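Exercise 4. Each item below gives a protein and its sequence. For each, produce the structure-token representation.

Item: Transcriptional regulator (Treponema peruense).
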Amino acid sequence: MDEENRYPDSIMEICQLLAKTDDSQLIFDFFECLFTRAELRDFSNRWNLVKELDAGTTQREIARKYGMSLCNITRGSKEMKKADSAFVRMLEKLKETH
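Answer:
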């Protein structure tokens, strides 16, 4: 199996493990082990941009606030507009917890 075909299996394995735990500190610690500081910052910013778009913040404001390119923000916006968007479904889960 080549590398391109292996990565979805590994990601799904991680997702399945995360779905089995309700220990948010363990997940946080796992992310700190798995990702570099820069990767964690990017990961965090991508989630923040989704929340900002949901709140109605303009793309230019998000770009300024997080130092992100408009291309990345536009990509997130397009993902949110897709039918059955995973971003929208996760935002709904976030709203359920608040």
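Check: Helices lie at 3-19, 24-34, 37-54, 59-66, 70-81, 86-97.
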